[in-house]
Amino acid sequence: xxxxxxxxxxxxxxLLLMFAISGCRSDMPxxxxxxxxxxxxxxxxxxxxxxxxxxxxxxxxxxxxxxxTSIIEKDLYGGFAxxxxxxxxxxxxxxxxYFEVYGKALDLASNMGLHVSxxxxxxxxxxxxxxxxxxxxxxxxxxxxxxxxxxxxxxxLFIKGLSGFEKEISPSGELMGIVAMDTTTKERIDLSEMIxxxxxxxxxxxxxxxxxxxxxVIDGDPNVDYLDPEAVRKFTGMIHQAYYDRFSNYFxxxxxxxxxxxxxxxxxxxxxxxxxxxxxxxEKHGFNPALLYPALWYDxxxxxxxxxxxxxxFRSELYAKxxxxxxQEWCTLHGISATGHQDxxxxxxxxxxxxxxxxxxxxxxxxxxDKIGGNxxxxxxxxxxxxAAANWDKTLVMSxxxxxxxxxxxxxxxxxAMEQYVKGINMLIPHAVWYNDQSVTFRPELSWxxxxxxxxxxxxxxxxSRLNIMLQPEGRMVSEIAMLYPITSLQADHHxxxxxxxxxxxxxxxxxxxxxxxxxxxxxxxxxxxxLHPEVIKQQCEVINGSLHLNNLIHHNxxxxxIMPSMRTISPHTLQLAKEFYEDGGTIIFTTQLPVQxxxxxxxxxxxxxxxxxxxxxxxxxxxPLLKTNSNGGRAYFIPNPDSLSLKNAIETSLTDFHVRFIxxxxxxxxxxxxxxxxxxxxxxxxxxxxxTKVALRGKMKLELHDPHSGLLKEVKPATxxxxxATYSTLDLHIPQNRSVFVVGY
Length: 746
Prior knowledge:
This protein has 18 helices and 37 strands. By secondary structure, it is an alpha/beta fold. It has an 8-stranded parallel sheet. A hairpin with a 2-residue loop joins strand 35 and strand 36 (726-735). Helix 1 (2-21) packs across helix 9 (304-333) and helix 3 packs parallel to helix 4 (96-112).
C-alpha cells in the first residue's frame, strides 16, 4: 500500500512538472495568432506587469486602491509585482499588518482580473528574507545561520621532501580535502587519509611540496546557501509558504508567478561552495574530487582543464538545482510559474557569477535577464537567455528592464524593448512603479505621476501588449544557424581569486568572442541564430541528411550551420558531432582559437586528432581564414580574426536556403517564429536611420503586415521569386528609425 501511495505521489508531481514545463499559465492561449481586433486592443492578460516598489513609507489600504486603479486605467498595465523596499517601509515585512494590506492589493487585483507576481524578498537579492525591524538581523540568518552561504577556503604551506611532516589540522568548517602537490612535476597526493585525530603526519618524498587544506566554511553572508536544496526549502518555507498560507485561494488565478531577484555566485568572494559537495560529487561521478581541488587555483598540468570542468561544472549544477529547481518545484506544487534573473549577466566569463548562464534556466518555467543601468550591456546576452529557453523547450522569456537607467527618453525606451523582443525575449517587466514617488531610489518612475512619461505610457504599454500577444503564444523559434555556448572553455580557463575581483567574474578569458560573434550576426549581418548548450547537443541533437537536428517537442529545429566560437577546451562528444555534421554535408565555422584540449579525462589526443583531421594545422598563420570541403558538400572554416565581412562571406558561400534573406538594402534584426499554421516574422530597425530593404521569405505565402506601434493591419501582395532551389515571397520594407513591424505569412 505504501508503494502504491508513493507511486501515485510521484505521478502527481510528474504531471505538475509537465504542466510547469508547458508554461504553467492556466490561461495560456492555444498556439494561434490573435484576431485583428485583439491585436489592435490587446486583452488585459497581455499587458506588461511592472515591479511595484512599496518603498520608504507606510503603505495604507486607501492609497493602494488609488494606485492600483490608476496604474491599470491610466497607464494600461496588467497587474503588478509588489517589492517591499527601503529603511522606512511599513508595515513590517511578513507581519500580519503587512499581509493585511497585501491582501487588499490582491482583492483589487482579483476583482479587476489582474496578474500578480509575488516578489520573494524584502529588497534584493533573494535569499535573506529581509531584516527584522529593530535589530537589523536578516531573518534567514537569524533563524538558520547554518544554512547560509558557504565559502571554499584554502590554507597552504610549503615543505621540502625526504623529511617527516607533522601538523595539527583544525578545520573551522567541513573538510573537503588535503592535497600535496609537487611544485615542479605537478604530482598530487591525497593526504586526507593520513590524519589521525587532528594530526596530519606524512613522510614526504623528494621534491618541493605545496600542501593545501580545503574546507567549506560559513561565509557570513546572510543569504541562503544557494547550492543546497535543503537550505532553499527552508527559505521557501519562510517566504513562499507564508504567502500561500494566507492567500492560497489566489494562487494559480490572480497570483500566477513568483519572481526571484539577483541570486549570484560572486558572493563569498566568488568561492561559493557547500557542505556535502564531495559526497554529492561522488554520487554523480563515482570518485572523490579531492585531488582535483588544486586546479581551482593552479595549473596542475594536463588535467587542469578537465578538473576545472568537473568542479566548476558540478558547482553550476548544484546552483541550478539547489536554488532554481527547488524554487520551481515549490511553485509547481502550488500552481504558479517561477521567473527571475541572475546578477551580473553581462559578464563574459560567468563561471563565478551565474555559473553557467544557460544551465540555470533549465529548471525554471520562465528564464530571465536584467537590463539595468551602469554601463551593463545585457543586450549582448539576450540571445543566451532566449536560446536557453529554446534549448529546454520554454515558451516565455522574461526581462526586468529599465532599472537604474535614469529618466530615459521615449526613443531609448522603445529601442531597448524592440531589441529585447527581436532577440527572443517576450515578457518585459518594467522597472518600476514606485509607491512613494517622492523617494525614488532607482529611476525611472514609470507611472502616470511622472510628467516625463504620463502621456506616453498608455501607448507604450499597448505597444508592449501587441508584442506579447504576437510572440507569447507557444510556437517554435526558427533559425538555420546554431552556435555552441562555449561553457567548457570558460570553465577550463577560470580559476578562483582571479585578478578582476569576484564582482566582475575574476578572470577575463583570452579571446572569448562568443558575444562579439552574436552581435555581428544579429546587429550587423541580419542573421538570427540559436546557442546550443553542450548538454543539449549531447542529449537532444543528431545529424540527419546534412542537418543538425534539435529534437525538442516545441523548439525543434534543423540547423545548416554550426559556429564554434573561440575555445581552447571542448567536449569530445561535441567536437565529434560537429565533425559528423561536416562529413554529412553541414557547415562548421571555428573562430579565433581552435580547441586544443578536452573537458574529459584521457581524451586530449582525441580532440587534437579530430582538429588535425579537419585542418592542416601546419598552414594556420592566425591571419587568414582556412576552408576545407568534402564531396558531400560539407564545409569547415577556421576564421582566426572574425569580422562581419569574413563571417558574411563564409555564411553566404555556404548557405542558400534561408528562411529569411535580405536581397537588397540594409539587413535588419529579425526573429522568425512558427505559431500554428502561421509564420511570424518580427523586423526591428535598431539602426540610426530609416531603412529600406527587400526581404525574401521562404515559401509562397499570403502576407499581412501588423504594426505594433499603431495596431494597424494590412494585407500585402508579395512577389514570388526562385532563389537557388527554393521559392520565396519577396516584399519591400520601409521601416523608419526606431520602429518595427510584424510580417505574418500563411
